[in-house]
Design a protein that fits this description.
The complex is a heterotrimer of chains A (about 130), B (about 280) and C (about 450). Chain B has 9 helices and 13 strands. Chain B has about 280 residues and is of the alpha/beta class. A 6-stranded mixed beta sheet of chain B has the order 6-7-8-3-9-10, with helices on both faces. The longest helix of chain B has 13 residues. Chain C folds into 2 domains: about 200 residues, no CATH class; about 230 residues, no CATH class. The chains are: A mainly alpha (about 130), B alpha/beta (about 280), C mainly alpha (about 450).
């Protein structure tokens, strides 16, 4: 499988890769267990920086869309990304813990901190294109 | 924090009453690919020469891999590759002799790998260097810089004479097979911005000897926008506004509300804006 | 098969050098004839003198023509030229060698046939044939046209010949050879024709197939490359204008001359000898400093040296210049000594030991050269080293020297033991180099280069 990368588009290259993988998984083109091409292959084919591809794959791994299989490389994760909600919440926990600690240290009250978090969530659709 | 692979501290260079470099300070982390962008005469070549230690700056200092540029140790030189704007090779030798002559000085040079690289660039090994075309001579300079698998590459317009396929080959060769833990730091000065966009991790903009802007390219894509001049934004958010221009470059980290008013730029557009 | 000599003459038309050499032999013969008709032992010597150049010419012709055969086969083989064409070209070259052989052999035979010579008539042609055969075989082994037995042994041939000519007493050797029985001479004489015939037969039927092979670089290529890597910092433009354009050999000669020019005035008397120091010679050496400063050698003078491991370092420029200059000086002088020995041997018949003893007497030059060069490097570095300062310095020294020359040599000698002299030379050289290291800058280096190319 091959990615369709436009290096000169306004979207960063890593973002393009991430979104393509997401789209392909959502539409069923990529099924659980399908391997992704290696970082080197993609980088050499498109003449781009391997670190960019690496970054994309790491992001996908964080989102649990792909897993690293020993001996195979990156492959689509089972259950195509629909991992149970409680697992996702568990992944969010560390970031919120750090934010809570910072809020406490700054002396902010809970309501203000929660309002800020809501603002951040509201702002997100700006950076993310259609999901 | 690990020391930066390339560091410069208030590098200044003046020649005949013109400022070529104006107190440039920059820290380039290891493993990054920096695109050095600017108009002709902005000082890109001079900066690269000062970093390599070929020219003594009037004040300030620079260092490569922790070693001062003017006193590069043999260990650092062995890990360094430099391509100058004009190839400047030994013209009377043939390609093979020249590659071997230069290569033997480097402990990490491997003749087999060097010849494979030369073959990828389609260099005629038996021809005398003076009979090579301009593009071939430039390719040879690139091979000379890459043949010993350097950890640090300083490239001054390395592909200006190359056709698009050769340029792609060059970009692939830049990221050649390396062991996992060994990073290659690259600083490339080029006018072919579309090529740079594919490979850079950081971009440094230079104008009239000064460093205008230096950040990761991903950050620039995410946070810099081209907004109309009348958009209301705090002063901190304005990166660049030319007098009389209809638009300006803003940083939406400081002006979150204006994010939708601006559009994302390509490297070429950003370059144009910064040099207005 | 082999065509008539018509294409041969065409080739001879092109090879003017060969024609010149053969013509000069012809002239020599014609001039010799009248003197040969008279008797005397001098004619014996003149016959001998002719033999060696004839053999050398034969060697040269055989080697170069065979080399050309090999090159031609490579070029046309790669182009997949038709076989009859290739055969014809090979035949042309072979004919040139045959003609040269016939010419030289006949000439030598005629000389030896003169009543005054004591050697057998056929010994001359025998030698010529042998040389032709060996030279051709050696060159063939390098071209891959034919599998030659004992190729490695043959490749040492030129070295053996040189050593033989210089080291052995050629007269006795030639006498011995001339006294061998007729059958031996006849056999030797036939070697070359047989070889030519064998080659003709073999190539007539089947030309060797072109096969790409690893080509060894031409002998002397290494030297030519080294010569070009050296830059000589002169006061003005060197004899040969542009090193990139001139051929290797001329460049090497030119560089050698430039480096050795300052020392042309060194006379037979060394500076230090058996415990006594000749002060006037010492002053002359000091004068050399100025001239050596105009012939300093830098190796690989290029900005790439600044980036290469082991290349130029800012605090060590002077040491590099000094080391490169001294090495080149030593090489040049070694070559001079050998050349001098060769000329003396061939021209006057002096055994090489005499020459080498003469050279060995001047061994103190090994101490002087580094010292003079160190001083010269320092002089060149200082900004005051304009031409005028140099001339003034030289003039002063010359004046002092002339003053000393008016005194007898005995009066100018100082007693200095060897250890002191050697120690002082070495310490002073080291000190001067270290001082020069501080003074030389990259800027100065490149300025000097620009100056030596611009004037």
């Amino acid at each position: 499988m091959d990615f369709d990368i436009s290096p000169n588009a306004p979207t960063p290259i890593y973002r393009q890769i991430v979104e393509q993988v997401r789209r392909m998984v959502a539409s069923g083109q990529l099924k659980a267990g399908d391997p992704l091409p290696s970082v080197r292959t993609v980088a050499l084919h498109h003449a781009i920086n391997p670190m960019t591809v690496s970054k994309a794959y790491s992001l996908l791994e964080t989102e649990q869309l792909v897993v690293r299989l020993r001996g195979v490389g990156m492959a689509i994760a089972d259950a195509g990304g629909t991992s149970p909600k409680r697992d996702k919440l568990a992944m969010l926990r560390p970031a919120l813990d750090a934010a809570a600690l910072t809020a406490r240290q700054l002396g902010l009250d809970d309501a203000a901190a929660m309002a800020l978090f809501q603002t951040c969530l509201d702002q997100l659709p700006l950076k993310d294109d259609h999901d | 924090m690990t020391s930066p692979a390339i560091g410069a501290n208030k590098l200044t260079l003046t020649r005949e009453n013109t400022t070529i470099l104006d107190a440039i300070s920059i820290d380039i982390p290891a493993g990054s690919v920096v695109g050095l962008v600017g108009r002709n005469g902005a000082g890109k070549s001079s900066l690269l020469r000062c970093l390599a230690g070929l020219v003594e700056p009037d004040s300030g200092s620079s260092s490569l891999l922790g070693c001062p540029s003017l006193e590069l140790s043999d260990a650092v030189r062995a890990r360094l590759g430099y391509v100058a704007q004009a190839p400047d090779l030994f013209e009377w030798m043939n390609v093979y002799e020249h590659l071997c002559l230069v290569g033997r000085a480097y402990p990490t040079w491997d003749e087999q790998r060097c010849l494979v690289l030369a073959a990828r660039f389609e260099l005629p090994l038996g021809k005398a260097v003076r009979e090579l075309s301009g593009g071939d001579q430039q390719k040879m300079a690139v091979v000379l810089a890459l043949a010993h698998d350097p950890d640090l590459l300083l490239l001054d317009e390395p592909v200006s004479s190359l056709d698009p396929l050769a340029r792609q080959e060059f970009m692939r060769a830049m990221f050649g097979a390396r062991a996992e833990h060994r990073e290659r730091t690259i600083i490339v000065s080029s006018h072919i911005l579309t090529d740079l966009e594919r490979v850079v991790s950081h971009v440094a903009f230079m104008r009239r000897g000064a460093l205008q802007l230096f950040d990761t390219w991903d950050a620039m894509l995410e946070y810099l926008r081209l907004a109309p001049v009348d958009t209301v934004v705090p002063d901190k958010a304005i990166i660049c506004r030319a007098a009389g221009a209809p638009s300006m470059v803003i940083d939406i980290r400081h002006a979150p509300g204006a994010a939708s008013a601006g559009k994302v730029m390509t490297l070429t557009e950003l370059f144009a804006e910064l040099n207005k | 098969m082999i065509s008539l000599p018509d294409p041969l003459l065409k080739h001879l038309r092109h090879s003017t050098l060969l024609k010149m050499v053969l013509a000069s032999f012809l002239v020599y013969w014609i001039c010799m004839l009248p003197s040969l008709l008279g008797s005397g032992t001098s004619s014996q010597a003149s016959v001998r003198v002719f033999l060696l150049p004839a053999m050398a010419t034969m060697y040269w012709v055989a080697t170069s023509m065979t080399g050309e055969m090999g090159r031609m086969l490579d070029v046309f083989g790669q182009l997949l030229a038709p076989h009859p064409f290739r055969r014809r070209l090979l035949a042309e070259k072979l004919w040139v060698i045959i003609i040269a052989w016939a010419f030289l052999a006949t000439g030598v035979a005629l000389q030896l046939a003169m009543p005054e010579s004591h050697a057998a008539v056929l010994s001359g042609p025998a030698l010529i044939s042998l040389i032709a055969c060996l030279a051709m075989l050696r060159a063939l082994s390098g071209t891959g046209l034919v599998a030659v037995p004992l190729a490695d042994v043959l490749s040492a041939l030129p070295v053996v010949l040189c050593v033989a000519v210089l080291g052995l007493d050629m007269h006795r050797l030639l006498d011995w050879f001339g006294a061998l029985p007729f059958a031996v001479h006849a056999a030797c004489t036939l070697t070359f024709p047989l070889l030519a015939l064998a080659l003709h037969r073999r190539w007539g039927s089947a030309l060797p197939e072109y096969r790409w092979r690893e080509r060894k670089p031409a002998a002397g290529r290494w030297l030519a490359v080294q010569a070009r890597r050296i830059t000589i910092l002169t006061w003005k433009k060197p004899l040969i204008g542009e090193p990139e354009k001139s051929s290797g050999l001329w460049l090497v000669l030119d560089q050698a001359i430039m480096v050795s020019l300052p020392f042309i005035f060194m006379v037979n008397r060394p500076v230090w000898e058996n415990g006594s120091l000749n002060t006037d010679r010492l002053l002359m050496s000091l004068m050399m400093v100025v001239m050596v400063a105009g012939a300093l050698v830098v190796h690989d003078l290029h900005w790439r040296s600044l980036l290469r491991p082991g290349g130029l370092k800012r605090g060590r420029i002077a040491s590099r210049i000094w080391a490169a200059t001294v090495i080149v000086q030593l090489c040049v002088f070694t070559v001079y000594a050998i050349a001098l020995a060769a000329v003396a041997r061939l021209g006057l018949g002096t055994p090489p030991e005499v020459i080498f003893a003469l050279v060995a007497r001047n061994w103190t030059m090994l101490l002087e050269l580094p010292f003079i060069t160190a001083f010269a490097v320092l002089v060149r570095a200082s900004p005051l080293a304009g031409k005028w300062t140099v001339i003034v310095f030289a003039g002063l020294l010359m004046a002092v020297m002339m003053m000393m020359l008016s005194l007898s040599p005995k009066q100018t000698m100082l007693h200095v033991p060897l250890a002191w002299y050697a120690g002082a030379s070495i310490c002073l050289s080291a000190a001067l180099v270290m001082l020069a290291n501080r003074v030389w800058t990259i800027k100065r280096l490149f300025t000097e280069v620009a100056r030596s190319q611009a004037n």
